[in-house]
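User: Show me a protein chain along with its predicted structure.
Assistant: Here is one chain, sequence first, then structure tokens.
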Amino acid sequence: MACPGSKPCEHCETTPLRDSAPYRVAASAISTDPSPYYTIANTHAALDPVVAQTVLDSGTGTFPADDGTHDGRHTWLAGVVRIDPESVRGNPTSVTVSASVHVHNDGPNAACRLYGRFALWNGTTPVRTDLLGPPDLPAGGDDNGVIPPTTVPLADVLAGRVVVELNLETGNDGACRVGPKQWTVDSFVLTVQAATPGCGRHFLRTTCRTCDGTVTCTTDTLDGSSTPYAPVPPVVPADSCQEGCSTDRPPCISTDRGNAITRGSDGCLYAPDAPALDPSPCNAARNTTGGLLVPRIDLAGIAPGGNSGVERSVDIDVTGAPGCPERWKIGARLTPVSAFLNSERQNADLLARTGADVPIPESDIVLPEAGVYHIDSDVRYGLGSATGGSGYIIGWLRDETTDTLLTSFTQISVINAARQEQHGGTTHIMTEYTVSSGPRTVRLHLMFVLTGGKITNAEAGGTDSNGATRMRFLKVRD
């Protein structure tokens, strides 16, 4: 390229240069908890994180209307600004952040006054708090939120402190007498730019001189075409700024809220003296004078071969290698609650209390805890007539604690003799019983019923030379 109307003795040379124009840094916004940015004095609701991320990824999301029970409710989203360190050239100390978004009032009600905010935060300090308008946007109306280019420290962006926040009124507004409304949000754009002296755009400068060296014209273009370019000063030779404009690769720092490592304004990384621990009461880890301590959990059970008891129905075995093993072996075996009892007494005289309920306290068994139990009883009896007669013995089990019948009446023995006859033996009563809490006392009850003639003896519920009344229970499941 030469000067227009140049003389034959003029000569021109083209030099590659680099200016200091701002360049775009690869950036994104990652959804985060919006509660630190609830500064409007109304009720608050966080937008679903998945919907929030869709909006921040330039998709379309819905801020749902409130159910009509909250006056002045606003729904919020927040996104941490993240940049790709490899897209940063040179050593800038700051960047500019700008953003835009489109909102549509789905109704069914109009918005009240200035109905939301599109803001930029650095930590807990608002850098920009631009209110959304126009006022009283009707149902079906549209608006565009804008965060103008705003300078923030690069170190704060790398530390995850810079956050974009959007909130919209989704509830009732008592002052304007309008009800809830829903919003559709889309077209979110985030722009981050940086500028380092001499690390801007490559361009070409053509300088023409006369034979005595006098400059006759200077033309700047991006690619040597006829289209001029106005470089941003300062301008340096391209070769001299290559190393200084190389991409810095600082360590990637997680922006998770629980990350204790931060990047200082000097660009250095800082970690607290002690690990930052989640204050949740479920967190067993704690700081001690000797360092971070995670308490060990010892699982205990009934010793192998020991007696089962009321503590538990499963015996837990935990074994591990000496020291601090990474793998543990955990085993379990069923050791259900159970008991066995002999009624060590003489048979109760049922004949003397014909037709009456005769409880047998010596048969009492105690179910210690909630669960389902298998219960059975061997009932020893004797029934006879010297002259002939008829009658029968019945028995049943009752929960004495709650006065609940466990079994219906069970026939223990029956006699219908025309002359002398004697019966003796053992009858079985069995049931399954569910209790919601313990302890519960279960007892055997007996009764003799005379139906004709004369019975000379009717007895049961005790122990004699040929057998005994026994009570047993076994817990079969919780």
